Write the structure tokens for this entry.
Amino acid sequence: EASGARDADGRIELARFHLTGRSLSLDGAGSYDPENDALKAHAVLAMPQLNGLSPALGARMAGSIAATADVSGKLGEPATTVKLTGSGLDIGSAHIDTLDASLIVPSGRAKAGSLAVNLVAGDLRTGLDAVLARPSPNVIAVRKLNLSGPDTKAEGQVTVDLRSRRAVGDFTAHIGNLAAWAPLAGEPLAGSASMILKLTSQGGQAG
């Protein structure tokens, strides 16, 4: 259900938006002022029982997820903040005790955004962070990509051209003790692993 209005000056006001479905609810509100090209919106997503999605996804799901999104600024390039939390998550055989993630994209292409993900799975504590940029309308750059964890070093960068659907970049990773990642994998692990991945306009190379 939704309720909104548009005044004589063209200003659009969405006072309330509410959607419910199996195992989820979505609520939001927003407005747009065309005279000042000003957009503002807020949305809240709640998925308290992920097990209801198991039949549709064909995999075991459990736990809960909640997310918020805020958008403000010019319609063409608004500032965006998305935050997500999860608790007691089961995805197939993998289990995550807690998940916290955030995506922040400032208004304007010249400003860099950020991505941060932190999770706890048993004794495992790991995080992923990166700097996001959009140097042109058709290019997305992920820089300073870093994965942290026990006896783990992984870093890289990638630039994606949306028009040509090609990516260039590199990623290197070394995990000295795979057993520490077993809680997240949902199965026993042992040994160590290393990877070098290079993406070129002609194709990728891995080692």
Notes: The mean pLDDT is 89. The longest strand covers residues 61-73.
